[in-house]
Amino acid sequence: MAKDCQYCGTSVYIPESGAIVFNPKDTKEEGMILPLPLNHKSSDVQVYEYKSKEELKSSLPILFEGATPRYWSHIINTETSRSFPISIQHLYERLCHPEMAELIHEGSFDAHLQPIVDMKNNQIHGYESLLRSNNLSVSPGELFSYANRSGLQSMLDQKARKTAVKAKSEHLLEGQKIFINFLPSTIYVPEFCLKHTFQVVKEFDLDPSDLVFEVVETEKITDVAHLRSILDTYKSSGMKVALDDVGTGYSTLDMLSLLQPDYLKIDRSYVEGCHKNIKNQTFLYQVMERAGQIGIQVLAEGIETKEEWDWLRKLGVDYGQGYFIGKPKPYPEKELIFP
């Protein structure tokens, strides 16, 4: 039985034997003869049947010579007659590393929790949930990199959200926030794509206001209206939202009034050495002024020294996070002591 991801619209696994269907006009030049047996050939479509995944993997460079990695074809499971679309890059990655696809599909993950402290009273405000695989040989960086290359970002992002919600239910007190990272590029239609997350929150009987969904994205967001619709969908369900890495990429000060997050997280590059770096201090003054005008709470991440902590606290930053406060751990620390 095929295992499908109803959220990203593609099968996680490649059939052991089957057929691949593609448009020859988008690959090799017309008139060229492929050195592979084609079971069906026309001007519009070509079908190549394969008897093993190893055969399919070795045939890809020939079948798709001249095609871009993003070129899409269809895979047919000849046993069930089911088919699904997949790009050439995603197909290749899943053929080369099926164990990684299995890991993401099975969702064998834990959350490590890093404390976030109220800088005014040194009390725990909440924790950021950081995804960790139970397979110790696979680092988080490798996992997310593979998900990106194989087209499984939506599935992994969804698993990460569920893992974080579960951690909140098991380890945190009522009123303590759980900060949950998510990728906007994996959410196509917010009302549909976030239904699973909202069902999980209801399943664990959590107060939605204790959940803070934190935007993370490595590429610049160009569709601000779409991002705003995602944040509004979270907010309409009673949850909070945070904008990460403010000061870099798309997370500029000008975006704050457009997106209206509940929290903004200052990029660690502006926190490092802030007690002596005039350029960083100038930016931090601007952040505090803009956030105060709009009513956004400010969180400084990457605090690693007492000097940084003291300077940010004097500035009036609301919340702090970093190794000076506490490192990510499977369970929250019972007590945090500051020198």
Tell the overall outline. elongated
User: How many β-strands, per DSSP?
Assistant: 15
Task: Kindly report the average pLDDT value.
Answer: 86
Q: What is the level 1 CATH name of the largest domain? A: Alpha Beta
Order of strands across the widest beta sheet?
A: 8-9-10-11-12-13-14-15
Question: Could you list the spans in which at least 5 consecutive residues all have pLDDT below 50?
Answer: 1-9, 29-33
- Sketch the topology as an H/E string, one letter per element: EEEEEHEEHHEEHHEHHEHEHEHHEHE
Question: Over the alpha carbons, how many angstroms does the gyration radius reach?
Answer: 24 Å
Organism: Halobacillus dabanensis
GO molecular function: cyclic-guanylate-specific phosphodiesterase activity
Pfam family, one: EAL
Protein name: EAL domain, c-di-GMP-specific phosphodiesterase class I (Or its enzymatically inactive variant)
